[in-house]
């Protein structure tokens, strides 16, 4: 067959294009292998023993347990604080919450993370990732000193901190506004029914007015509040804070998990061919606990247990999506929680713990063998489920290494070879080897927060002198329940830890040795 010069050129060009395509595919595959996807599945008020692999007998969690069987299960893994906003602040900034005086934020709080802060999503952005947050935010929105325009663009927010996409429950599900926020806009907002948050005397007269739970308790038809949570009543549930307007945009409490899973899975599908970071921040099992009707009765513990079953389902759906797109092996999945368990946290939803602050609900102790829970400085307040799965690298098993969520920023920066800016993430230690199962010790020290702070150092846990007395020291090797204060018997240990804590608070955990 005789070929003309034109034919030969066409064949050569096609061969060249094919060669380039193969190189591109190889390059993309190599890039994906070097850059694992990262998904953080973050629970709300999920205690150490609310998960089967950590000892739960009354709440079935088969999806989380399967995740655990394929990953590394940490028995000494911590959030930084026994309350939500400070832990979330620490996870994203690599700084302890007390440095910015972060406490549980109210409905009108402005964003507590400065937009100039170097954050966890910025680590991933600098490494070439697409980034998203889906779910509960509770770190404030808008700039300090400025009004938030809920009827226009709500910013600054996650997009100013390094996230490419956000779909938020703006505060938490027991606080107004009871609407979803996608990027800068309230979802399904009717401009003829403007949203207002604050003192209702200043609300637009055209806005929908919701019942005031203080004056009309009968409006709480889902269940009654037990303390607080009696301002605007939305969907038959009393909330913290007053809201007017936005009726068409109101969320449905019982379908919230479905909505968040849908948005998370859509982000994964859209970015399946390039590395991504997803911070999936569930509202479960925070109050008001409103599991979808299909989950009711699936545990032995009513609303709280059924909400945990729902969270287990959410975890399973995300894992199914990763598998569907061939991403399970080279995706790091981290499962954890923002603080320890709580039972009666403002609603009469059937939990039976009395008095408030008790630990056992119908034979179930959400903090397991550890003392305390949400709001408390003891181990049950910050020692939470902590599972890391990465089949391509991590060998399944258990680890007693001491690890903290505040270390994610420095650890992922090390993994991705991203240089941290000077002065950033001052409390984030590089714990990458521990997270990968290559270090059985982990952090030599961590700080735990509640109404005050405590220092963990090896087997020792020290609480500085407070208003109610002197220092407390516990030997967690022999006293995991923190029942016996041995400070008087170990004065040198106490002094060493007090001095170390003072230096760490001043210099930052990463720089103080």
What does this structure look like?
The chain is of the alpha/beta class and 513 residues long. It folds into two domains: 36-196 and 243-439, Alkaline Phosphatase, subunit A (3-Layer(aba) Sandwich), CATH 3.40.720.10; 452-513, Arylsulfatase, C-terminal domain. 25% of the residues lie in helices and 16% in strands. The protein has ten helices and 20 strands. The protein has helices at residues 5-34, 62-69, 84-93, 120-126, 256-270, 302-324, 379-382, 408-415, 432-435, 491-507, and strands at 37-43, 72-78, 130-136, 165-169, 181-182, 185-186, 196-197, 233-234, 237-238, 243-244, 276-281, 331-337, 360-361, 364-365, 387-389, 397-404, 445-449, 453-457, 460-463, 472-475. The strands form five sheets. The chain has a ten-stranded mixed sheet, sandwiched between helices. α2 crosses α6 (302-324) and α5 runs parallel beside α6. It is globular.
Count of discrete alpha- or pi-helical segments spanning 4 or more residues = 10
Helix content range: 10-25%
Q: What is the fold-level CATH name, i.e. the topology of the largest domain? A: Alkaline Phosphatase, subunit A
State the name of the first-level CATH class of the largest domain: Alpha Beta
Task: Report the CATH architecture of the largest domain.
Answer: 3-Layer(aba) Sandwich
How many domains is the backbone divided into? 2
What is the gyration radius calculated from CA atoms? 24 Å
From the spread of the alpha carbons, the general shape counts as globular
